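Notes, p. 3: input format for complexes.
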Amino acid sequence: MVALQLQSVGAYHGRKLFVEGVTTPMMKSGEMIAVIGPNAAGKSTLFKRITGILKGPGSVVIDGARRGNAIGYMPQDTSANAVLTVYESILLARKQGQSWAVSDGDLRFIDEIMKALNITSIAFRDLGALSGGQRQLVSIAQALIREPEIMLMDEPTSALDLHRQVEVLDFMQRQARTKGMIVLIAIHDLNQALRFADKVLVIANGRMRACGKPRDVVTAEMLREVYKIHARIEKCSLDHDHVIVDGTAH
Ligand SMILES: Nc1ncnc2c1ncn2[C@@H]1O[C@H](COP(=O)(O)OP(=O)(O)OP(=O)(O)O)[C@@H](O)[C@H]1O
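Output follows (250 residues plus adenosine-5'-triphosphate):
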């Protein structure tokens, strides 16, 4: 069982503090947390601080991790210029930092992940010859193949069609539940956040505005203040909450 908590976390770009004072409740094994907020709010910056790519004040407290490097990170920019096939790139991600001997288990796991993400048919295509959505799926596979206990995904579904979005979010939710992973997903689609997340963390102007149950956090008031939109949260016939946007607020 792994647990993650941010305590007064901030992050610098150069000498400037872009994210400040983020203190979250304890995030636990099996949870999926949607990180939402406007453009340039600091979501990617916060992720980079959690992974250690960026420095800053405060503590990223991880309890109960099985290994030293428990964090997997899928960056927002999934462009690739390495001359590798999809399969090679996933195998390379699997073996990074380990011995180069490839076991049957490694190969089986690669097949499993590729099947789950529906990318088996492009296994031997060059990375440079993929569509934006295909690249995004390969990038998810590269992060998952390392079996992280905490997975940070920066807008993993932004280039995917609706079917693939639901497939990927559903798959990540199952991964969180069955493997006891903590999954943090930066995402702009608030309806997908409402549908899949156990918790929603709102970042605005480099600060945490709220963190809690989706229904408590995604409110008309928050949407007006943080996103400057007039919106209602209404239940559909299946009793799921949906954001219905009426227009922009000034
Ligand atoms: N490498 C960098 N150097 C300097 N400033 C940066 C750098 N990367 C990001 N920033 C700044 O940090 C702030 C937060 O950016 P960040 O990418 O974290 O936002 P975001 O919430 O992920 O936005 P988006 O939803 O648009 O992806 C922005 O003002 C941005 O200009």
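The chain has eight helices and 13 strands.
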